[in-house]
Each structure stands twice: as structure tokens, then as C-alpha cells.
Amino acid sequence: MVKVVLEKDIERDVLQGKKIAILGYGSQGHAHAQNLRDNGHDVIIGLRQGKSFEKAKEDGFTVLPVADAVSLAEVVMVLMPDEVQPKVYEENIKPNLKSGAALVFAHGFNIHYGQVKPPADVDVFLVAPKGPGHIVRRTFTEGAGVPALYAIHQDVTGEAKDLALSYAKGIGAARAGVLKTTFKEETETDLFGEQAVLCGGLSQLVKTGFEVLTEAGYQPEAAYFEVLHEMKLIVDLMYEGGLAYMRYSISDTAQWGDFVSGPRVINNETKERMKEVLADIQSGKFAKDWILENQVNRPQFNAINNREKEHPIEQVGRDLRALMPFIQKPEQEKEQEVKQ
Ligand code: NDP
Ligand code: MG
Ligand code: MG
Fold first, then answer.
1. Which amino acids are annotated catalytic?
2. What's the pTM?
3. Active-site positions, per UniProt (predicted)?
4. From the annotation, which residues make up the binding site?
């Protein structure tokens, strides 16, 4: 097995005493900022005026315009959406970066696809948690962590690796394991994972299963429990002990069904489609399409997003989750309730 770095392996806490600017206070931003602060680091937030600006202030942080935060910081972590980073970088980050500072990302997209071109006198690396921001925060408060990858693009100070590991420890990732990678590998595997398996593959699998059951006349509530609610319970077992532990816990009937029917649904043809998805990521086609979609204000993204929200599985899901107060409500639904 390759070397997975843990907290005990990280001896030099070179982040200590350095001013860290976290740019953005969304999913990853709030988690990095709060975890680093809880670990005794000196954190300020860089943001435009708006919703997160107020939120970060309420949470007790010093919040400054992006340009000001960058000009004060030795470590600048860019946690704005990938598609806005190039513009904010040109206008507010680049002109204010201190020589010898570290420019840090949580995903390799903009460096790998050449959308951000850093100056030669700064360190550039990534520390990419392999989990959603809200879970990065939640696991940290529970004494655990979400694993992360790190990669060095540019090391002018000779300290980039120590800084990356120290940062990973600061956000709690070294409690779970930190793995060395490259910008290319992180970018391409992250995009493939979210498209083919974690987000795209999974939501399509769930939705299609729901449609097959309801179109055959079964109750939507029963279908929801079967293909969406129970997904977490099954995945929790995989998280704890891999596929074998999940199969140990399910009935032998379910395990036999897994063996004979799984490969009928996800088959060689699906594998070929996955390879096409990977090829589009590797060639830059996916990146180009997404950059262009943003340049024309996301007509396709918005149309699909609106349609997806109206899918019957979402409607029945809202009603059923309302009956289960032990399920934490997602931030987004809370916000919608506030607006109404
Ligand atoms: P979010 O969409 O959650 O972050 C939005 C934040 O950026 C908000 O605070 C928003 O402020 C701010 N912002 C948006 N536009 C601007 C702007 N023009 N100027 C200043 N601030 C702005 O991002 P994520 O946390 O999802 O992603 C951040 C990075 O982390 C990305 O590189 C992503 O690939 C990576 N990543 C994300 C993961 C995740 O779990 N989401 C997982 C691993 C990596 P406002 O309220 O004003 O809009
Ligand atoms: Mg990811
Ligand atoms: Mg991603």
C-alpha cells in the first residue's frame, strides 16, 4: 500500500503563526475556517459583500474584501466555486499575493485546465478533502475527519509539502489519512468520481429504480424508502467494512440478488459509458463545456436543475422526511423555509 500520512507523521506544524486567508465561506470554506480556528490557527475570511459575508461575521471571524485578505495572508486558500475562481483570481487575488506566499486550492480544476496561471514567486498546492464540506466540519466536531489528497504544483519556498501536510492536519484530514497525488490525478479522479459514481451515477440509479417501481404501480412512499432512504443505511455499512461487511449484514437472499442482478444493471455497456465520461474529462472536453456553459449564464444547468427538483421522488421525499425529525435538515431546505 502507498504511504498514507496520519497526524502522528506530521511533525513540523509550519502553518502555526502564519495568517491564513480563506476565500469563500460556503460548503468547504466554513468547514476549513472553523476547523483551522479550533486547532489554534490564525484565520481571516476574504469575501464579497453578501450572505456569506454576514454568516462568517456572525461566526466570529474577521471578514475582509478578498483583495485585503489576500494582501495580509501568508496562506491563501481559494474556496469559491471553481467557475468564478479565474475572474476573482485575476482581479483580486493575483495583484495582492505576497511574494513567497502559498496559493492553495481544494480541487485542481483551474490549475490543471490552465484557467489560473500563478506567478513564479509563490507556492502552489492543493489540499482536497474527499467529502462534502458540511461533513468535513461535522466529523471534525465528532473527533474524526474526512481523508484528503495533497499535491504540489509549485514549491518556491521549499516548504510547500510541509505546509500542505500541516494544512491537512489543521482541517482534521490527517485523522483519517492524507494521500499524495498530482493536480492531474486529483482533478481527473475527482471529476470522474462525482460524475460516474457518487453524484451522477448514484442519483440516476436511485431515480431510475424509483421510476421502475412507481410505473409498475407500487406506492411512491414504498419506492422512496426502498431506493433512497435505505441507500444511506447500506452505504454506511460499506463505509464501515467495505462491500463484504455490507453483504454480511444483508440477508442471503439480498446477497444472491446482488450477485445475479447487479451485473445485469451495471454491465459492460455501462463500463464503456464510464470510459467515455473519463475520456471527456481527460481530453478537457468536459471542462470546456462547463466553462462555456457558465459564460452564457448556465441555460442548460438551470433548465435541468428546475426539472430535477420537480421529480416525484423529491416531492414524496420532502413529505416523508418531515415525519422523521431525527434526520438533520439540509441547509438548503432550511433557507427555503426562511424565504417563504
Ligand atoms: P461553494 O459554492 O459552497 O462556495 C461559495 C462561496 O464562495 C460563498 O461563500 C460565496 O459567497 C463565495 N463566492 C462566490 N462567488 C464569489 C465571488 N465572486 N467573490 C467572492 N466570493 C464568492 O463552494 P464549494 O465549497 O462547493 O467549493 C469550493 C472549492 O472546494 C471548489 O474548488 C470545489 O471544487 C472544492 N471542493 C468542494 C467540495 C464540496 O464539498 N462542495 C468537495 C471538495 C472540494 P456568497 O454568499 O457571497 O455567494
Ligand atoms: Mg470530490
Ligand atoms: Mg469535485
1. 107
2. 0.94
3. 107
4. 25-28, 48, 52, 133, 190, 194, 226, 230, 251
Tell me, using a 6 A CB cutoff, whether residue 22 lines ligand 1. no
Q: How far is the CA of 94 from the centre of ligand 3 (A)?
A: 24
Q: How far is the CA of 261 from the centre of ligand 3 (A)?
A: 30
Let me know: does 173 contact 31? Beta carbons within 8 Å.
no
Taking phi first (over 0 means left), then psi (-120 to 50 degrees means alpha), and beta for anything else, what does residue 77 get? Answer: beta
The grid coordinates of residue 285 equal: 472536453
112 in contact with ligand 1, CB cutoff 6 A: no
Q: What angle do CA 76, 81, 87 make, to 5 degrees?
A: 75
Domains of the chain plus CATH, in order, are 4-181 (3.40.50.720), 193-330 (no CATH)
Q: Which residue has the cell 500500500?
A: 1
- pLDDT, tens only, 27-81: 999 999 999 999 999 999 999 999 999 999 999 999 999 999 999 999 999 999 9
